[in-house]
Design a protein that fits this description.
The structure holds 2 protein chains of 2 kinds.
Chain A: E1 2-11, E2 14-24, E3 29-33, H1 40-48, E4 54-62, E5 65-66, H2 72-77, E6 80-83, E7 90-94, H3 95-109, H4 117-130, H5 135-138, E8 141-142, H6 148-162, E9 166-170, H7 178-191, E10 197-201, E11 215-220, E12 223-228, H8 230-239, H9 242-247
Parallel strand pairs in A: 3-10, 3-11, 6-9, 9-10
Antiparallel strand pairs in A: 1-2, 1-4, 4-5, 7-8, 11-12
Chain B: H1 3-9, H2 11-15, H3 23-38, H4 54-57, H5 73-76, E1 87-92, E2 95-96, E3 109-112, H6 113-118, H7 123-129, H8 138-145, E4 151-155, E5 165-171, E6 178-180, E7 183-188, E8 193-202, E9 208-218, E10 223-230, E11 236-246, E12 251-258, E13 263-272, E14 278-287, E15 292-301, E16 307-316, E17 321-330, E18 338-347, E19 353-362, E20 368-376, H9 380-388, H10 393-409, H11 415-428
Helix pairs in contact in B: 3-8, 9-10
The chains are: A alpha/beta, B alpha/beta.
Chain lengths: ~250, ~425
């Protein structure tokens, strides 16, 4: 599904990713862990196509196609979804209208008609129930005045609506209490299938108790320095990141 | 000849066309004297610091286009809010078009100023209201001096006018350049209700300068909603001088949508003469090219327990310039006043300019007055967020701008007007509206 080779990227001439390799196959869950400043969020933003970063070397392939020159919306249309660490507030646009616009713009890009209103409503109802989201919440301005937990739940709701092939969850567990964490993780698990893949970026092992990864990668100083199974996350939790830094 | 001299020397010709033995003509003559003394406003005047009329005053304007110019409804239908039933007052090059208009005298009057000024039937209303609140400044005086044609609307006590009234001034461009001075009088008696849509539209690219004066009187418990659609050709300039007087418990709203035109100056003045009055002044301005729009608002709180709400949103691209000067005066007697003013602007280009100036003069001590003014850019993070969800950059920008303008749009009470404004905005932003807000 996703194949990243020798990815090097910088921002304002500061090198952040220094030759990163990662392969994610359909049906898999990968966790990327690492200390602050390792480049985790940078990696997520670069896959999604944020243009603050300059990719100086390497390739990003999605299902065999190089996406590194595509606009963010084109990557989204190809099935890339990024759950933001800090979802942006957009006053004046309701959650419902935003997601309707997002779905219909994606359909338009694929040459499809708008989704019929009836189907849209049904889907919104189903997915909001899955994430235990109150109907009133859907009429509010997007992320405006939302609590940290509401913002994250809303991200996963959008993910459920858009049904991406590759979902990247950037620190989705931060700001969540234990109940919200369970709801969000449950939502992600229900959306998982053999045809899609999930990358979970997290600092802590907590979320991985609920979304169990097939692979855990440790990112340090712009490179993946260690890869293991779910037990690696527990090891990191117990030992911290200092020993990883010594590995590098 | 300079435009001022041309105007002064043409006055005799104007007098041949109107009744000079009337009280109104005395008012006109005084106003002419006023204009002669004051001349056109220059940038030396504080109120005109950021708006220069020099370039538009240079044109050789035809002052009283004499030709009867007809236009086909099919050609101009798009400028009407045509999907609703409405009364219409249509002027072509300053002359009334009975063919395109739909007037009434049934229970209320929607007709011509020239008729109201000349027929005995309207004498009392004219005596009581004509030129009673219009200022004696230079451009208002100029309009008053030549006041003869425009809209006359009189709504008697307890009448709720069910259809909106559209006032449209077309210019055909049959003259090289046209100066128009419409004069409107709108009197809404106790507990009456009316909605008015006003538009100026040039049909060619020949220069037009419109210097319009509108006086609005809202009696006790009256409700008046006025929508000004300013989306004219790029060679058409407009000075809109509007004066609103309100009595107790009345609600008057004026929405000004400024999207087109060359130079547009809105002088919007509210005087609250009563208690528990609500005055609502809202605007959306979206400019590009070298367009210039100047909003000068005044709300004068004279008596206690009244409110005013101002909300002006501006989006400026290319080399366009905007001015917002919002003045609020709260008299010493006007205790318990609530006066709110908001002016938010987005600059889309490095070369666009906005000059924003709130001016609060408060002489009472028990009042709530607030003003907030912001100037910013579109949020790149918000754009990336939307793109990440599959919304292309252009549509994302449009959605952000719609959302930004929405606090003004959502208070438009006529759905068809709201729809029309939304589609003008969409056209202006070069997007199809694939979203609703």
């Amino acid at each position: 599904m996703l194949k990243i080779e020798n990815l090097q990227a910088s921002i304002d001439d500061k090198s952040i990713l220094k030759g990163l390799n990662l392969e994610v196959k359909a049906g898999e869950v990968h966790a990327i862990m690492g200390p602050n400043g390792a480049g985790k969020s940078t990696l997520a933003n670069i896959i999604a196509g944020k243009d603050d970063y300059e990719v100086t070397n390497g390739t990003i392939e999605l299902n065999g196609e190089d996406i590194s020159e595509l606009a963010p919306e084109e990557r989204a249309h190809n099935g890339v979804f990024l759950s933001f660490q800090y979802p942006v507030e957009i006053p004046g646009v309701s959650v419902t209208n935003f997601i309707k616009t997002a779905i219909n713009e994606t359909r338009k890009a694929k040459g499809l008609e708008d989704m019929p209103a009836k189907d849209m409503l049904k889907k919104i109802r189903e997915k909001s129930e899955l994430l235990e989201i109150d109907r009133k919440f859907l009429g509010r301005s997007l992320n405006e005045g939302f609590s940290g937990g509401e913002k994250k739940r809303n991200e996963i709701f959008q993910m459920a609506m858009l049904e991406p092939k590759l979902a990247i969850l950037d620190e989705t567990d931060s700001g969540l209490d234990i109940d919200a964490l369970r709801i969000v993780a449950n939502g992600v698990n229900k959306l998982k299938s053999k045809d899609n893949a999930v990358i979970v970026i997290t600092h802590y092992q907590r979320l991985l108790e609920y979304i169990v990864p097939d692979f855990v990668h440790v990112l340090h100083d712009g490179k993946i320095v260690k890869t293991g199974d779910a037990s690696l996350a527990l090891e990191l939790e117990a030992k911290g990141y200092d020993w990883i830094k010594e590995l590098a | 000849m300079e435009l001022k001299d041309k105007l002064l020397s043409s006055y005799v010709a104007f007098e041949n066309r109107v009744d000079t033995n009337s009280d109104v003509h005395e008012i006109r003559s005084e106003a002419l004297q006023n204009f002669e003394d004051l001349g056109f406003p220059s940038k030396k005047l504080e109120a005109w610091k950021y708006t220069s009329l020099n370039s538009v005053l240079k044109q050789d304007y035809s002052l009283f286009p004499n030709k009867e110019n007809a236009i086909e409804l099919a050609d101009v239908k798009k400028y009407f809010i045509h999907d609703i039933d409405a009364y219409k007052l249509v002027f072509i090059d300053g002359k009334y078009s009975s063919f395109l208009s739909e007037t009434t005298h049934d229970t209320f009057d929607v007709c011509l100023m020239s008729a109201a000024l000349s027929k005995p039937k309207y004498k009392v209303v004219i005596e009581n209201y004509f030129n009673k609140i219009a200022k004696k400044d230079n451009l208002t005086s100029l309009n008053t001096a030549f006041a003869n044609e425009g809209a006359y609307i009189y709504i008697p006590k307890n009448v709720e006018v069910e259809k909106p009234i559209q006032i449209i001034n077309f210019t055909t461009g049959s003259e090289v350049a046209t100066l128009l001075q419409p004069r409107n009088l709108i009197v809404v008696e106790q507990n009456a209700h009316v909605q008015i849509i006003e538009r100026h539209q040039s049909l060619t690219s020949n220069p037009v300068l419109t210097n319009s004066v509108t006086e609005v009187f809202a009696a006790k418990d009256a409700t008046v909603d006025i929508y000004k659609i300013q989306n004219d050709d790029e060679n058409a300039s407009l000075v809109d001088n509007s004066y609103v007087e309100q009595k107790s418990n009345s609600i008057v709203s004026v929405h000004t949508f400024s999207f087109g035109g060359n130079i547009t100056r809105n002088n919007l003045n509210f005087y609250q003469r009563g208690e528990y009055i609500d005055s609502i002044l809202k605007g959306i301005t979206i400019l590009d090219g070298k367009q210039h729009v100047d909003h000068h608002t005044l709300v004068h709180h004279i008596e206690p327990n009244c409110e005013s709400h101002q909300d002006y949103k501006g989006i400026y691209d290319a080399r366009s310039t905007g001015v917002f000067n919002g003045k609020v005066i709260v008299d010493k007697e006007a205790q318990k006043t609530n006066a709110y003013q908001k002016n938010n602007n987005v600059l889309m280009s490095d070369k666009a300019t906005i000059n924003a100036k709130p001016q609060l003069e408060i002489f009472a001590d028990d009042v709530k007055c607030s003003h907030g003014c912001t100037i910013g850019q579109l949020d790149d993070d918000a754009l990336f967020y939307m793109q990440q969800r599959g919304i292309p950059k252009k549509e994302g920008k449009a959605l952000l701008m719609f959302a930004f303008a929405n606090t003004v749009l959502e208070s438009v009470k006529i759905p068809e007007v709201k729809q029309r404004i939304a589609s003008i905005i969409a056209k202006k932003l070069n997007v199809k509206i694939g979203f609703d807000l």
